[in-house]
Amino acid sequence: MSSARYPGAKPSLIVRKLHPENQETPIHFITGDEIDHKMFYRRNHFSYPTLTYSNYWLPINGSVVSPRIFSVQDILKLPSRTITAVLECAGNKRSLFEPKVFGEQWENGGISQGRWKGVPLRTLLELTGIQAGATEVVVEGYDYGKRTDLDNIYTYARSLPLEKALHPDTIIAYAYNDQPIPFKHGYPLRLIVPQWYGMASVKWIKQVSIVDSPFKGPFQSIDYMYYPNKENDNNSFPVTTINVNSTIQRPLNMEVLDTGKHIIKGIAWTGKGFISKVEISTDFGKTWSYANIMNQDQERYRWFSWSYEWVVLEKGDYTIMVKATDSHNQSQPTSPFWNRKGYGYNAITKIKIRIE
Ligand SMILES: Nc1nc2c(c(=O)[nH]1)N[C@H]1C(S)=C(S)[C@@H](COP(=O)(O)O)O[C@H]1N2
Ligand SMILES: [Mo]
C-alpha cells in the first residue's frame, strides 16, 4: 500500500501499561532489520530511575582480585564490539497461552532488534581479575521499587553464570544504532546478552559484582522461572535461552483479502544457532511448503526475514501456519509449553484469513 495515499499514517508503540511503562513494538508494520529506538519495545518493572550522569561510575566488586570503578570515558577508550541482536521479552506472546496466565498480556511485539556497541564484560573482568571459586556475575540496575509479593524494596538485578558473562559477545553497551543508548533503554550503560531472553540485559547498570554462590534475587528466583504446574513450584527451572519462534507480519490476523496473489511475510529467530528452515501451511497444516528465507548467511543473533508467495483462487476461510526450525533441529511445537508465569511461548504461529 503506498504511503502517499495515507499521508501521516505511521506506526506507533502499543501500550500495555504506562506505570511502569510497558509498550510493544508494532511488529507488523516494521520494515528493515534495525528498529528505530522510537519503535523499540519498552519493558520495565519499576519507575524509571534517577541518575546523575555527571557523577556516573561503574563499580566492579566482589570476588575480584582488584575492585575497580570505571568512568564511561574509561569504557569508551577500550576496544569495542558491535552486535546486532534480537532482544525478546520472555513474556512475548503471553496472551496466547491457554489457559490464560496472569502478567502483562504481550501479543507479539515484545521483540525488537538493533545494533548495540559496547565493551565485552569480559574485558572489564580481565582488568579486575576474578578470584578462584567465583561462579556468577551479578549485574544490578539503578531502578528499584516494591513488588506485590514481597515487603522489601528491590533493585532490578540479575546474574549470569561465569561462562555466559565471559562470552566475548556479552557486552556492556553504550550505543544503540550509532547513538548513545536512549534513556528508556538503559543510558548510559546497559548489559546486552545475545541469545538469552531480554530479562538478562540489565539497563542502567549501577554495579557489577562477582559472587561465589547462586544469586537469589526475586527477578531470578521468583520471576523468570518456568513453573510447569498450576498449583505448585515443582520442577521449575530458569528462563535463559530464547526459543525458536516466528511471527507473521503480513497479512494481519483476521484480515479479509481477495483472490489472487498475496505475499505472506514475517520474521523467524532463535537463541542458539540460526534459522535453518521456515515452513508454511495455508491449509491448516495439511500440506507444508518452504518459505523463502532472506539473508540466511547473516551473522548470528539476528532474526531472519522470510516470505512466501500465496496464490489463492478459492474463496473461504483459511488458517495460515508457520513453523520455524533452527540449526540445532529445534522446531516450533504444535502446542506451547504451558507454564504458570507464561514465559517462552513459541508454538506454531497461526493466523486466520478470509478470502472473498
Ligand atoms: N534495570 C532494568 N533492566 C531491565 C529491565 C528492568 O525492568 N530494569 N527489564 C528487563 C526485561 S524483562 C526486558 S524484556 C528488557 C527490555 O528492554 P527494553 O525496555 O530496552 O526493550 O530489559 C531488561 N532489563
Ligand atoms: Mo522481559
Automatic annotation (TrEMBL):
Where does the record place the Oxidoreductase molybdopterin-binding domain?
A: 45-218
What Pfam families does this protein map onto? Mo-co_dimer, Oxidored_molyb
Which cofactor(s) are needed, names only? Mo-molybdopterin
Source superkingdom: Bacteria
Which key words are in the record?
Answer: Metal-binding, Molybdenum, Oxidoreductase
Q: Which SUPFAM superfamilies match?
A: E set domains (SSF81296), Oxidoreductase molybdopterin-binding domain (SSF56524)
- InterPro entries attached to this UniProt entry: Ig_E-set, MoCF_OxRdtse_dimer, Mopterin_OxRdtase_euk, OxRdtase_Mopterin-bd_dom, OxRdtase_Mopterin-bd_sf
Has UniProt tagged this entry with the keyword Cell inner membrane? no
Where would I find the Moybdenum cofactor oxidoreductase dimerisation domain in this sequence? 240-355
Protein's name in the database: Sulfite oxidase
Source organism per entry reads Ectobacillus funiculus
Query: Source organism lineage?
Result: Bacteria, Bacillati, Bacillota, Bacilli, Bacillales
